[in-house]
Amino acid sequence: MKKVTINSVATYAGVSKKTVSRVLNNEPNVSPATREKVLKVFKELDYTPNPIARGLARNRSFIIGCLYDNPSKSYITRVQSGALEACHKHNYNLLIHPCELRGGALIANIENLLTTSRLDGLVLTPPFSDSVELIEFLKRKNVNYARVASAIEDDESISVRSNDEQGAFEITEHLIELGHSNIAFIKGHPDHSATEQRFSGYQRALSTHNIAFNNALVAEGNFSYHSGADSAKAILDITPRPSAVFASNDYMAAAVLKLATQRHLKVPEDISIAGFDNAPIARHIWPGLTTIAQPVEEMTRQAVELLINQIGGADVGVLQTTLEAKLITRESTAKP
Amino acid sequence: MKKVTINSVATYAGVSKKTVSRVLNNEPNVSPATREKVLKVFKELDYTPNPIARGLARNRSFIIGCLYDNPSKSYITRVQSGALEACHKHNYNLLIHPCELRGGALIANIENLLTTSRLDGLVLTPPFSDSVELIEFLKRKNVNYARVASAIEDDESISVRSNDEQGAFEITEHLIELGHSNIAFIKGHPDHSATEQRFSGYQRALSTHNIAFNNALVAEGNFSYHSGADSAKAILDITPRPSAVFASNDYMAAAVLKLATQRHLKVPEDISIAGFDNAPIARHIWPGLTTIAQPVEEMTRQAVELLINQIGGADVGVLQTTLEAKLITRESTAKP
DNA sequence: ATGAAATGTGACACCGGTGTCATAATGAGG
DNA sequence: CCTCATTATGACACCGGTGTCACATTTCAT
Asked: Is nucleic acid strand D under 7 Å from A26's C-beta?
């Protein structure tokens, strides 16, 4: 099968390349008759313009790259879903690129990515949105980027985050108001800024309600289900057993719930469990998890939309936004 | 900041574009001295080649597109993970494109995708891997593609599937051998060929063990958790209550488990539950789900690898492979 | 009818690389 | 020292579009 290019169309239709290009891009100043004629040839020859050539001429690829390194699959799915919504709205496409923050190869990896595929912009999700090294590199390379859920504030780039500290405060307060005071906490991955923020919200709630912070009640997780299972073991063995557990995300909370159930503890009668994120699993298990609904899709959608506007050369106005997190109470928390 | 192109490098280094290009691509016939010189200029000018220009010249984008329309998020995550592994191994990138099979806009949507971004190949996941309309279109457009978990056999294109019928047979047989005979079944999405195959395996197992098939025990799901919850209601209200439920995927099985637990039924003492896929949720809940481990990542990895070889012009040899599914027994199934 | 403005069209350079081929420089063998 | 093969290098066309600008044609007010 012979390739159909803009040249063949032009020859066949008896007009110049440029006129074909005009029809292709719906530019004005083409007579209706000519336009019709060219459009007919498009159909006849089954012509599809070459996006690469177009990209070269316009210096655009209409592709956004999404960087992630996140143990929580559902978080990534939600990120993708928000990013895709914004992309498709503007006729952009999304390229996904998981990679590792640690190991020293990050910059080389991203450099290779940019060499392999021309990307108009990059969405950085945690923990990349907090990587100063990466951000410096992108600035130097003049690559457009948007940060999702980043804690860095003194940066003039696009950033959409949610209020993790406040969310953690509220859910801890919810437990306290139910009557809990012996509340265990499971931390997230140390590379993620959300980890520190959620921890800090937990501590602030305790202190606000005059409950002494007890480091023995804190377990180190990393947002993965598996780490939650390990932390759960540690926590359920504490004497006296905490009457409530607040895990930094729903996966880890689900792991606590599973172990508690295995040990024939009744949730929430014997122990209350709270999570964070409002991941699907929070409502797929019984009892459903009390959690903080974090607007992951919406954050990403907004970030990508701003990014695309910026790429288009528009004046984006407000670059940095903070969305609210919301407490969702389900069956996993109750009075002790 | 001025753009650094191959021309600036050439001028600065005092050589021709072509020589720079040679160094860039590690081609032979460049004297060590010249190579050194050019490499030094790369560093000095912080040069990054333009992938689009390269793509235009070579007629390659080194991007694979992944099509999906699947209610199960974890399935998609696994597909992506397998596809990415193969892509990165060959220095390709992955662009994701969820879209709808139904609605009539599919072909236009894909046509637009191909117009927007030059893709070297497409991975079709269910239900697209069974869409004759789409496959015809891609053939006509001369687009390389690979099918994952497709039931179409009389096609000369790349296809990697797993044995769904056999998997469903085995898990049903497992229930029968435990002593169950009143086994309810929840179907998957009607657009997916796996749905028919799993149903067929269920029926074959019944018939092999001389158990009469009873259509009243069959509920219509669509692979989503939500549809599983609806089916669960219907099934748990059947009198006499089935002693076991086999759901066509783990999400729906999890929904059955949740409702059963809510109704204070003990699993597996009062009712056994089996799923399909070995999705993460199968081991994140208690009791863990007995299920069929489907090698989703591996299927996709192999499919993409074959696809990339084909794009590279290699003789791919065997185009169609079937991988085995494996029974995983956990706590959700037991004697009635 | 006439000149100015608006509209339609094409020639040509350009985007930033790669492929082909001719030619220059180097090295081995006699 | 010369010939011939080998290695190194560059000129130039080309990939398939878009941007600029010049020019031809039409429209419209005077």
From this structure: no
Domain total in chain A? 3
Q: Please give the angle made by the CA atoms of B60, B160 and B250, to the nearest 5 degrees.
A: 115
pLDDT in tens, B129-155: 999 999 999 999 989 999 999 999 877
User: B286 and A257 in contact by Cβ < 8 A?
Assistant: yes
Residues in chain A: 336
pLDDT at site B1: 57
Give me the CA A155–C1' C17 separation in Å, rounded: 35
Q: Are residues B149 and B179 in the same domain?
A: no
Does residue B43 belong to any structural domain of this protein?
yes
Query: A98 near A52, Cβ under 8 Å?
Result: no
Mark whether A195 and A73 lie in a shared domain.
Answer: no
Q: Which nucleotides of C are covered by protein (CB under 7 A)?
A: 7-20
Assigned token pair, B1: 């900041």
Residues contacting A142, CB < 8 A, separation 6+? B1
Q: What would the mean pLDDT of A218-245 be, rounded to a whole number? A: 97
Tens digits of residue pLDDT in B167-215: 999 999 999 999 999 999 999 999 999 999 999 999 999 999 999 999 9
Query: Domain check: are A178 and A265 in the same one?
Result: yes
A132 and A37 both lie in a single domain: no
Which residue, among B178, B85, B4, has the nearest Cα to A115 in the 3D structure? B4
CB A243 within 8 A of CB A307: no
Confidence of residue A47 (pLDDT cuts 50, 70, 90): very high
The answer to whether B51 CB is within 7 Å of strand C is: no
Residue–nucleotide distance: A277 CA to D19 C1' (Å): 49
Strand D atom within 7 Å of B89 CB: no
Q: How far apart are CA A213 and CA A235, in angstroms?
A: 15
Domain that includes residue B242, residue range: 164-294
- Measured from the CB, is A34 under 7 Å from any atom of strand D? no
CATH of the domain at B259: 3.40.50.2300
**Segments of chain B with pLDDT less than 70:** 1-2
Strand D proximity: list residues 165-194 of A with CB under 7 Å: none
Determine, yes or no, domain membership for A285: yes
Examine residue A212 and state whether it is found in any structural domain, yes or no. yes
Residue B314's SS3 state is coil
Sign of the four-CA dihedral A80, A83, A86, A89:
negative
The residues that bridge with B328 in the sheet, in sequence order, are: B291
Chain B interface, best mutation among A118, A138, A224, by max B CB count within 10 A: A118
Q: Is the pLDDT of residue A1 over 70?
A: no
- Token pair, residue B242, equals 């089935």
